[in-house]
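Fold this sequence, please.
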Amino acid sequence: MIESLLVANRGEIARRILRTARRLGVRTVAVYSEADADLPFVREADEAVCVGPANPAQSYRNAEAVLAAAKSTGARAIHPGYGFLSENADFARTVEANGLVWVGPGAEAISAMGDKINARNLMAAAGVPVAPGTTDPAADAAAAIGFPVMVKAAAGGGGMGMAVATDPASLRDEYDKVRAFAERMFGDGSVLIERYFPRVRHVEVQILGLADGRVVALGERECSVQRRNQKLVEESPSPAVDAALRERLLAAAVRAGEAVGYRSAGTVECLLDTTTGEFFFLEMNTRLQVEHPVTELVHGVDLVEEQLRVAAGLAPTFDPDALAPRGHAIELRINAEDPKRFLPGPGAVTAWTEPTGEGVRVDSGYALGTTVTPFYDSLMAKLVVHGADRAQAIDRARTAVAGFEIAGPKCNLPFFAELLDNPEFLGGDYDTGIVARMRATK
């Protein structure tokens, strides 16, 4: 097993990785920005190094500073978490070139799947279903797909750099906007145009590339409760997926991983057409997902431990041929944002009481006396519940939401209380438009 690990991230995901490393007896190093000096993850590591000011480009995305911290502390491996440097193929190569262990997929897989156009072509060649699409912005090319179309940055991710065009005139406007955004944010103005599905579900599959070269799938997650194309709630298994569809989804995800020689944890994201039952490849996230805890609770595995084992060349802790889900899990992303318009609302935390109880897990990045600053993502914590079935999981989620006290920053807990009594969500027959419909009635 790896003896020492630097966690190149912050907040809840840094604490979550540190927790597993500590359980395994791995010495840990945290890196932090000046703005995060008082957060729990900094004091929970065996050693911590400040890598710069609040600006992420000068701290958490500063590859040279992170690598220098690893060298100065004697860390032998780097886990990037999600975001920041996690899908930076050049950084992965640099880590390994410096004789350190990269806890993640190979740089070639990161690079191959980081460009949506290249990823789409690879998936089509591997027999993974892809939606009709083109890179040609001409109106007749889009018309051949059929309006409306989704215009999205090829190098984007996390719901960023996406727009819907309903006709040739709006296509020209949205294409130019997305291209300009992509160039500014990602340094790559490439744009992909695909069929837009007005009523669609967002379903993804957790894969794990093992040290022996095999790729296994650990079930699917439903991610359709979203605002601005970004997830708020995830659950597993998906209430929209039956046994036959699950078999096809998981097989396609395994083919996707095999196509790029994938190792470590990754996620194959798909769109599920609620009308036809067809699914299409959306993108592959070559890292640990924010929502990985629901898979952990349903399958009884520690995905961070499995990542560390893969990186060390070790076999998994579970039997890949005997994976079986158990019960139902739901994750709620507790963000520092108002529960109506979902606008960020940072601030000092004046109250913080986490819920407890059977089947309740909280992965948090903050605590009483800390401050949510405006420099980073608004995620404060993840409230995850597990039950024998979906009904019990929802009941436990209601109780946990009611028992989670946060004061100071704005907080979206009231939205979740509303969602957990929403007939559409309770019935399980919802799609990516559920939040917009909820807010349209307010």
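The mean pLDDT is 95. The radius of gyration is 21 Å.
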